[in-house]
Amino acid sequence: MAQVSKPGLLRKHHLCLRSYDYPSLFNFSNSKAGIAYWMRSLTNFADSFQFILIMAKYLKTDFDFNSKDLVELMDDVPIWSAPFGLKLLDHIRYSQNLHVLDIGFGTGFPLIELAMRLGKTSKILGVDPWDAAVDRAEKKIEYYGISNVEIIRGVAEEIPLGDQSIDLITSNNGLNNVADLDKSLQECARVIKKGGQFIQTLNLNTTMMELYEVMEKVLFELKLDQSVKLMHEHIAEKRKPLDACIALIEKKGFSVENILHDRFEYKFTDATAMFNHYFIRLAFLDGWKSSIPEDRQTEVFNMIERNMNEMADREGVCKLSVPFVLIDCKKL
Ligand SMILES: C[S@@+](CC[C@H](N)C(=O)[O-])C[C@H]1O[C@@H](n2cnc3c(N)ncnc32)[C@H](O)[C@@H]1O
């Protein structure tokens, strides 16, 4: 990989030209040391020149602002993912020559952002089983001409990589979506090198409490006690308590270096707007419906919507709180 060593060579070349350590032409040009020195300098100069040419490739960028592909591809990191992802991108230990694994990258986040931020000396692998999303990520990778990404269509429970082959594992709301967390963490512990960074974000089990409190009240009112139980089971299954997550991570041989708490509020004019938002319908509605018998769902959701709209009238906004954490670990 010619490009990999270029920054080093450029620095070395500059060092060679410091006034106190390069031999004078007159003193050394006839000695073996002098000839070797100037040959080396010439090679370094040629390398540096080539490096400048390689670096300057980006100057040839010619994006077409009227291209449908471009505007389509620019526009698809879900805004839901952004608050988590920005924290994650802030806390990665940036370095050259990293082998990175991103778990559950969906349509390409943070996989592609990492590839661009870490640069060509690093290689970013991504694992995700969602074919349609992976197709989309591949289209972006190709369109932007990114060469340091490799995609694995598979699951975190079975990562087809060698033991201790990865320096950095990232997951933005990915690991909290896997079918078997214990097995996935076991695989993370196997593929990461000793001292490697394992960093993930996930939302906590008090996510969207405003909605669940109203839902519980409505379900009790309608004497759907079994649905209340199912609702709590659904929350527990989707979002494990933080202590349980930490214990599981530590059991796999990681030390937890930093736990960073943050939150955002998903705000809407009212519950009607909230229930009709595409991302709510895509990512949450099925889960909410799953604890309620099908023939009661319309009645239940009408009541929840009415209750939450009254709250929005009183408070001036309908908001769903999303507390989340970043867990930054090191492999022991
Ligand atoms: C909430 S999305 C997060 C996507 C992306 N990281 C983001 O921030 O927008 C969860 C992702 O985890 C993926 N996923 C689900 N089960 C998985 C598994 N067993 N192994 C790896 N990824 C999985 C899903 O396909 C989905 O792309």
Question: Termini distance?
Answer: 31 Å
Instruction: Give the radius of gyration.
Output: 26 Å
Mean pLDDT across residues: 88
* pLDDT < 50 runs, ≥5 residues: 1-29
- Full CATH superfamily name of the largest domain: Vaccinia Virus protein VP39
Largest sheet: 7 strands, mixed
What proportion of the residues form beta strands (DSSP E)? 15-25%
Shape: globular
Structural class: alpha/beta
SS elements, strand count: 7
Q: Provide the spatial order of strands within the biggest beta sheet.
A: 3-2-1-4-5-7-6
**CATH top-level class of the largest domain:** Alpha Beta
Query: What is the helix fraction of residues, given as a range?
Result: 40-55%
CATH topology value of the largest domain? Rossmann fold
Q: Multimeric state of these chains?
A: single chain
Secondary structure layout plus pairing:
Elements lengths: L1 H15 L8 H4 L3 H24 L12 H7 L6 H11 L7 E5 L7 H8 L4 E6 L2 H13 L5 E5 L12 E7 L8 H11 E12 L5 H13 L3 H14 L3 H10 L2 E15 L2 H6 L1 H6 L1 H5 L7 H19 L2 E14 L1
Parallel strand pairs: 1-2, 1-4, 2-3, 4-5
Antiparallel strand pairs: 5-7, 6-7
Helix pairs in contact: 1-3, 9-10, 9-15
Structure, described:
- With 332 residues, this protein is of the alpha/beta class.
- The chain has three domains: 2-60, no CATH class; 65-202, Vaccinia Virus protein VP39 (Rossmann fold); 204-240 and 259-323, no CATH class.
- Helix content is 50%, strand content 19%.
- The chain has 15 helices and seven strands.
- The chain has helices spanning 2-16, 25-28, 32-55, 68-74, 81-91, 111-118, 131-143, 181-191, 209-221, 225-238, 242-251, 271-276, 278-283, 285-289, 297-315, and strands spanning 99-103, 123-128, 149-153, 166-172, 192-203, 254-268, 318-331.
- A seven-stranded mixed sheet has the order 3-2-1-4-5-7-6, sandwiched between helices.
- Strand 1, helix 6 (111-118) and strand 2 (123-128) form a beta-alpha-beta unit.
- Helix 1 packs across helix 3 (32-55), helix 9 (209-221) packs antiparallel against helix 10 (225-238) and helix 9 (209-221) packs across helix 15 (297-315).
- The longest helix is centred in the first third of the chain and has 24 residues, at 32-55.
- The protein is globular, with a radius of gyration of 26 Å.
- Bound molecules: S-adenosylmethionine.
- S-adenosylmethionine binds at residues 78, 81, 85, 103-106, 109, 127-130, 133, 155-157, 172-174, 177-179.
- S-adenosylmethionine is lined by residues 78, 81, 85, 103-106, 109, 127-130, 133, 155-157, 172-174, 177-179.
